[in-house]
Amino acid sequence: MGTRMFRRHVLAALALACAAPFAQAQGYPSKPVRIIVPQPPGGGFDTVGRLVADRMGRVTGQSFVVENRTGSGTLVGTDAAAKAPADGYTLLIGSVSNLALNPGLYANLPYDSLKDFEPVGLLVSYSYTLVGRKDLPLRSLKEVLAYARANPGKLNYASAGNGSGQHVLAAALWHLAKVEVAHVPYRGAQPAYQDLLGGRVDLFFDLSPTARIQVDAGNAKALAVSGAARNTMHPQVPTVLESGAADLQLESWFGLFAPAKTPPEVLQKLRADFARVAALPDVQEALVKGGGKPMALIGDDARAVVQRDVEHWSKLVKTLGIRAE
Q1: Are 119 and 132 found together in one domain?
Q2: Same domain, yes or no, for 144 and 224?
Q3: Among 69, 74, 37, 46, which Cα is nearest to 324's?
Q4: What is the extent of the structural domain holding 184?
Q5: Do 219 and 152 fall into the same domain?
Q6: Strands 90-95 and 33-37
Q7: 91 shares its domain with 41
Q8: Domain-located, residue 6
Q9: Is there a domain that residue 83 lies in?
Q10: E strand spans, the chain
């Protein structure tokens, strides 16, 4: 092959290489996209995942399919997403639970929340509500703490599993309030509710939208909420801060994430489509009706929130000595 012909081949190859990412983004998505939800159906992860999948599908004209990958709290599904091909066809529903809490809970976490994922965008945040079984003879968080101090270990609390948001938030509260309350972990929120409603466990710190259903039905009593302000779903219920129990607040955000090496052009397309979804009036209405606070943070704005909470909560979890293993 002559020098001139070789140069032509090189230039053609370079042109193809430069055009490939653009073509990839222009044609993306050209096949169904998998959204990994690292929790079972029925909880906050799943609710957000299905809403995002449905609306992203409508906006792009391509199928976005939820895959519930469960195991070890949120670890198995999140790790599967971190190690998936970075081509935009495997995405993750990320939250405080799997991205900000897990780095403090696991000594050898198989993924890095900040290095292994690129935020597409954050959609919504939810506070947690501390609920008690309906026949619990304690009417407030203050009364719960007073009883726990006088009776160490006699009260117990459910969680959706070791290392779940329900576990960490409650454990942090008991630790900061200097009381001993026994932990009873379950495999998801639904079995935890079965025992709470059956009177077999005393307390459960669950996401407010899920807790609201049981409180409104009279199956459980609301004692406190975890946000910086009172929740509009339970306006009569004080915050943990108002209760004077501890300097503690947490709202759990949920959003869409891609593996870190996803091509920039594909990320740009994903973020543009996600921004359209987040701005839809029916999406915002659904989030508010479900007890959420719409966020619509895209790209760098989302990354700043994630980085802040990863640093804060992983450090606090380690300080408190809470472990998932």
Answers
A1: no
A2: yes
A3: 74
A4: 127-243
A5: yes
A6: parallel
A7: yes
A8: no
A9: yes
A10: 33-37, 64-68, 90-95, 117-133, 156-159, 182-185, 203-207, 220-225, 251-259, 293-298
Q: How far apart are CA 195 and CA 207, in angstroms?
A: 17
Same domain for 111 and 147:
no
The answer to whether 317 and 168 have CB atoms below 8 angstroms apart is yes
The whole-angstrom separation of Cα 47 and Cα 51 is 6
**Is residue 15 one of the residues assigned to a domain?**
no
pLDDT on residue 26 = 66
| The pLDDT of residue 25 | 56
Q: Running along the chain, 325 residues long, what does each successive block of 10 average in pLDDT? A: 45 42 68 95 89 98 96 91 98 95 92 98 95 97 97 95 84 93 90 96 93 94 93 89 87 96 98 98 93 92 96 88 75
pLDDT digits (tens, 9 = 90+) for 57-112: 999 999 999 999 998 878 999 999 999 999 999 999 999 989 999 999 898 999 99
Helix axes 165-176, 300-320, angle to 10 degrees: 50
Q: Is the peptide bond before 29 cis (omega within 30 degrees of 0)?
A: yes
3-class SS of residue 246: coil
